[in-house]
Amino acid sequence: MINSKRQTKGIFLKHLKNTQEQKTIKMPLPSLLTIPMLQHMGTPCEVIVKVGDYVKTGDKVGDSEEMFSAPIHAPASGKIIAIDDYTSVGGVITKCVVIQTDSKQELSSQITPPVIHNKEDFLKAVRESGLVGLGGAGFPAHVKLSYPDTDKLDTLVINAAECEPYITSDYREMMENTKDIIECMKVVQKYLNIKNAYIGIEDNKPEAIKILDDKTSHEQAINVVKLKSKYPQGAEKVIIYTATGRVVQDGQLPADCGVIVMNVSSIAFLARYIKTGVPLVSRRLTVDGDCVKKPQNVEVLIGTSLKEVLDFCDYDEQNTKMILMGGPMMGVANYSSKAPVIKNNNAILALSERQAIQPPTTACIKCSKCVYVCPVNLMPLVLEKAHDSKNLDELKNYSANLCINCGCCSYICPAKRNLAQKIQLGKAMLKNTQ
Description:
The protein is of the alpha/beta class. It has helices at residues 119-129, 141-144, 169-176, 178-192, 206-215, 236-244, 264-276, 306-312, 353-356, 369-373, 380-388, 392-397, 408-412, 419-432; strands at residues 2-3, 25-26, 32-36, 46-47, 54-55, 60-63, 72-73, 78-87, 93-101, 155-159, 196-202, 222-227, 259-263, 282-288, 296-301, 322-325, 332-333, 347-351.
């Protein structure tokens, strides 16, 4: 085990890992599943089924010829009863497929373990699995692993930091599926010719550190790295630096620095897909918040409504003022409890008015606390001003595009200004001018 002494700026948060020692519980089969055609960064899929079709578990219901996309599969067998428009939490309108499930739960005949002899076979298998980043970003995994200049790649970093409060889904993956994690790390190293691998875990997870350190003690090319429990330790650029000492510069990808980063749940799923051929049709979620009476980790079919998941965990619907998909720092507030679980969800939080409502903002007092905590060394107060004045030159000159949207600046601001949100809007302004 390596004890990393490298640190970046950031903040210390209450961990609130209430479900850390609760084993994953499988949710009952829902009667309806709503499957959006956009569950990843990039191009939405096209619907490849029609109303009235019968699908089996694992059948493709959406796909795209575009590289920056990932196929979408039926999470359960049943009848296609509708193909509707669907508005994502980001406001993007795509199609969705609605499946009325049955009691047969037949597996698709297409489900067979992939045959992998070389890198091309491996990348094809990753794409066919439907895998996207399960840590929250939803980046198609085959795109990340298809870096053209493979001679540059020498390091694999498994992101097991799980630095946001409440969320413990990755922790349960480490405790329940340790073997899968290590097996697939070696597969990725083999087919991408990567020499060194690191598993970065925050030091508030001593049991996970111990079990992974024990299981990798005989693996010379794999090291467990104990990281400081400091938010946002799990941000890609942050964990690359704290685990390896490498810095990803403006305009660079991690692969440009020789590093591939994968979420710990992503790598474990990929191991299971290689063994079984079952694509990404379910995932583990942490369900918590002060309006949830039975916080727990649950395995949920993709397409299950948030309300059905929350009802399973006995939530107080009447006093819930906000439902977050993700953690309290980077999660997205949902407009409806009827919205479905998608691939890159890792948590659902139901929060009361006391926790959900933000205090009124006041004038900036130029205290610079936001500057002191920014993990990528930006000046949030200056970027907020540039956004408000629509000063594109200032947004560019002060590197708005480097913002990782961790929310540290908004959290620490004594005036409760919406710094992180303004910077994201500033980034959108820059993008629209390109």
